[in-house]
Design brief:
The protein has helices at 35-53, 61-68, 78-93, 103-115, 121-128, 159-173, 272-285, 287-295, 315-318; strands at 2-4, 15-21, 24-30, 74-75, 137-138, 143-145, 179-183, 186-190, 199-204, 213-219, 222-228, 233-237, 243-247, 250-251, 256-257, 262-269, 301-306, 311-313, 321-323. By secondary structure, the chain is α+β, with helices and mostly antiparallel strands. An eight-stranded antiparallel sheet has the order 2-3-7-8-11-16-17-18. A hairpin with a 2-residue loop joins β2 (15-21) and β3 (24-30). α6 packs antiparallel against α7. The radius of gyration is 20 Å and the shape is globular.
Length: 327
Amino acid sequence: MPLRVRARGLSSTPSVNRTAVMGTVACQEVYGISGEATAEAVNQELRRLDALWSPFRPGNIVDAIRNAAGTVPVSVDDDTFEILSMARILGIRSHGTFDITADPVIRLWRDAARAKKSPPVEQIEKMCNLVDIADLRIGTDRKVFLPRAGQGIDLGAIGKGYAADRTRVIYESAGIRHAVITIGGNVLVMSTRPDGAQWRIGIQDPRLPRNELFGYIEAENCSIVTSGDYERFFEYSGADGNLQRFHHIIDPRTGRPADTGVCGVTVMAASSSLADALATAAFILGIEKGMELCDSFEDIHTLFIDKKGLVHPSSGMRERFRRIANE
C-alpha cells in the first residue's frame, strides 16, 4: 500500500481528514481555505459510490445485476455505466487477467477466508466457468446483462481508482490546487506540494511490518496504485498440519490466488482507474508479461517487487523511484 512520506517546509497547513469507507480508510490532506468543506464533499462522494458498488450492500446495483443474471437486463446509473464500460475494455485488453466478472470466484474465496480453509477444487472449477468478461453486455441504453445465472460483477480492483478520479473532479471544481488522498492502496496527488516540490509517496516493504517503507516515488498530478499479496490474506492449517497462506488477488483464469513470483506491483498513471486495473492485471501476469501489458499504454510507469525483494522498475519509474537504504 502506498504511504505518504512527510516532508518539512510546506507553505500552508492542510485540512486533514480520515473516514472509513470502501472497506478501508480514506485519508486526505487538502490545502486551501475551502479545504475542510471540500474534504467533506469528497467523503460524501466516496460513500455514495461505496453504497452503489459494495459487495456487502444487499439491494445495490451490483447485487441487482447478480440477481438478474440469466434473466433480464438491468438499467444502471451513469457512474456504473462508465465504470463497467471501462472495465470491459480493460478486461479484454488484459486477456482476462483483470476481469470484473470474477465475482463468483471472489465470493467463494471470501467465504473460504471466513471458514479458514481453501475451497474445494470442484467448487473453484465450477465458479471459474462463470467468469468471462466477454459475457458482459452493455447497451447504449445503459442496460447491463450477464447471460448466465450465477454470474456477477465485483469492482474491487477498479472501484477505488474510479473513486479517486471522481475526487480529482471535486478538488478541481472547488479550486483546490494541492491535495493528496489515499484510499487503501490508491493514492492521488493534485499538482505538486504547496512549496513546489514533488510529493513523495512511500512504498511498503512487503517483507516487513506495516508502515515500514521500501522506498518512495516522487510524483505530481497523477495517481499511484499498489497491489500486493501482503495486505489481505488468510492462513490456516492444512491436512498435513502445515500452515497455508492465501492472498486476496485471484487469477480469474484459474480461480486461485495468483502466484508468479511477485509480491507487489505499483503503477503510476494519470488515471487512477487505469492504474488500479493495471496493478491487478500486472500482478497476475508476473514481471515480464505484466510489464509488457503496462508498456502497451501511454505514460504508464511500473514497479515490481519480487519475492526475493528485488526491484524491477520500468524505464520511466527508474527515474522516479528512490530506494530507502536499510539502517
